[in-house]
Amino acid sequence: MNLPPKVTTRAFERLAEIGASDQGKALRVAVEGGGCSGFQYEIALDEPKEDDLVLEGEGQRVVVDSVSLPFLTNAVIDFTEELIGARFVIDNPNATSSCGCGTSFSM
Hints:
By secondary structure, this protein is mostly beta strands. It is built from 1 helix and 9 strands.
């Protein structure tokens, strides 16, 4: 079953901390060709566009464009704080392999 990606409370809380919606921005999660495994994630603050899927929580928004959406079916968008730094991460069940950097994957 194709379900849209889920966003954790922690990810929405981080967006609130950095004041994303106050600036009229949302967290854009996109999938692009490239990277060491064939596809890579692009994660950035951006303004929502017309054909975006908008996921809302805690007064914040995460947006995914229609081209990237199939690659992110059932994925979970989270925020983690580790020794290598705090970052948004994507747990993607569609990825068959990924590289060590965690931003590139293949299907």
